[in-house]
Amino acid sequence: MTYRLGVDVGGTFTDILLIDEDTGRTFRAKTASTPEDQSIGVLRGIERACTAAGVGPSSIGEVFHGTTVATNAILEGKGARVGLVTTEGFRQVLQIARSFVPGGLAGWIIWPKPEPLAALEDTVEVRGRIGSDGSVVTELDEDDVRAKLRRLKDRGVEALSISLINSYANPDHEQRVAALAAEILPDISVSRSSAVLPELREYERTITTVANAAVQPQVARYVANLESQLRESGVEGRLCILRSDGGLVSAKVAADNPVNLLLSGPAGGVTGATWVAEQAGYPDFLTFDMGGTSTDVALVQSLTPRVGRETTVGDLKVRATSVDVRTVGAGGGSIAHVPPLTQALRVGPQSAGAAPGPAAYAAGGTQPTVTDANVVLGYLPADLAGGEITLDREAARAAVKPIADATGLASVEAAAAGIVDIVNENMFGALRLVSIQQGFDPRDFALVAFGGAGPLHANALGKLTGAWPVIIPPSPGVLCAYGDATTNLRDEAVRTLVRRFGELTDHSLRDLLTDLAAKARATLTDQAVPEDEQEVVYSVDLRYHGQGFEIPVPVDLASFDGDGGGLDALRQAFDAEHQRLFSFVLDTEQELVTARATAHGPKPEVAASELAAGDSDPTPALRTHAQIWVEGAEVSAAIYDRALLRAGNVVPGPAIVTEMDSTTLILPGHAATVHPSGSLLIRPAHEER
Question: Which GO terms describe its biological process (predicted)?
Fold first, then answer.
């Protein structure tokens, strides 16, 4: 009997999910995150999950980990001191950057421009030039390179990034600079743009390479430490890390290319939600992952998450493939406050985090949070995380009372309801970004809600979006870990080739994609994935000639049979997507900018669990009744134990369904049907079926 382990480290909790590959049975553990060393919380959780399963660590065949180490290094400004080597004349590439300024009208007046990840004084220019066609315009001056590298060594840089003009077309100069760096700076990591992002656009390629260098030492230390700790604890299985696009890579590949991990945590949630929605029979859905610090949302069509070519973390935007996730600073730990000037209630983005946490945790926190508001309203049980945290209701009321006083609301309950309403609107705004703003009607989608706090707010978000049913997965608090454990190994190969369609043939594009596929397959083969179990998907970034941006379009390689049918299909697909996004098409010739091949390993064969059948009556799972505050008044709500619910049970609202890692609120006028896969499907009562 073998087990696979999913690990997700969040800002507040570390989630562990141990899966029996033969039966699909799962064992969960949830522990407080340990920001000072994430591996401490991970190992503590693994020990608890193994104890619950009655197995030893040696039974774990594979460990799949979604991590926020790279993300936190960027957000907290704790990346390494990076030296940057550029081509002569391009020293200020990061300072010039792009002209876009976030914010509304006149936002530039108050917007503080973020400091580049590589300081100007740590940036050097070297003589040598590659042309856009890959030809050598000026030979590399190696004596000059050595002198500049010694200067960076004297400045005490901790990591080195190399980004030379047009290196995507010819990496020779970058490779030679890296070889010289190995002699002069032998103890620091080196990131080459031609390896990190071999694509067009100098600034994007440079900032992505510098970001990779900034987080590489910290990620490499963390991965090495975790691997060592796992071995010492008896876990012999291999360690894989989740990428931002929802695929897995080996620990070594992750440590070499950490810029691809910046959205590792949220990607795990989308992957897990896809697994759950497939079991429930809903291929089109929105995801809603509410944790302690933030909320992540995404859109999935036909069980395929929308993937973007950019990753944004805080003020940093890099070119790295990632699931199209939008994040808002709205979580269980988000702090409510009333600014003196406006006297208007606000929630977030500041968070109480894991330490000290909400006031209800009785760990020293005194500021009112969303969790405190839910406690005041009666939505949360006395214990969280399987008893690890005991809630202090009086402390929660004391924290929320100043909000009631400052806003003039009649009661603490009214203030708590206001906090919940505002945070719901904040999260609704994020859902609009991935649906309505992208041309999708949320009413055409289901809504999969998870995370420790997601199921508490899911019914309300269903009302705001009109997305039904609202799907609450089994173990929603550890779904990100489930996603980590049920995805597959993945790698991609990319090449920039700016060509108008008139300059391409089916054969030339097919040959290019085939070459890229071989490169992507090689990485998986090195990770012991048999070639006959690998699958490759293709895409190209297209634009109209003269445009300054591209749109990714999937490629059906079978249509490239030599008679031009493949290029014709791409024209039509691009025009259709351009029409959907912008409501118009142009007569201008299409142009290919970048080609991409992504190799996938086989999905793990994890059996899906199925609940025992029952009738519509949920009474056997009823535990008690409690008074909760809903829609401006106290009402009596039934409290159910989710572990005792059976397939077919219908839970009418108002009700609360409790489990080890999360709590689900079902509002009046709604009901939840228990699906055989274990998910709760919440709909308005008149639609329940």
Answer: glutathione metabolic process
